[in-house]
Amino acid sequence: MEKLRTTLDAVLDTLDQLNTILSEEQTLLGAGHINSVALQKVTDTKSATLATVQYLDKNRQEI
């Protein structure tokens, strides 16, 4: 049961990070001029975070 709690806490933390990343991405996309370098960094971070969510969800399902 402790492993499930730990995994769910990690999922929650990662989703909070994703929320921040998505807000940053929205800000960049809503700007009058798109900074492609900053947007690429945010996109890369978002992809890595989504991969983490997928990994943690797979672990959760195996518990």
Q: Gyration radius, to the nearest Å?
A: 15 Å
What is the distance, rounded to the nearest whole angstrom, between the alpha carbons of the first and last residues? Answer: 9 Å
Kindly report the average pLDDT value.
96
> What percent of the residues sit in helical stretches (DSSP H or I)?
over 70%
Question: How many domains, in number, for the residues?
Answer: 1
What does the main sheet amount to?
none
Q: What is the helix/strand order?
A: HH
Low-confidence stretches: none
Q: What structural class is derived from the secondary structure elements? A: mainly alpha
**Total helical elements:** 2
User: Could you tell me the strand content as a percent range?
Assistant: under 5%
What's the β-strand tally?
Answer: 0
- What would you call the shape? elongated
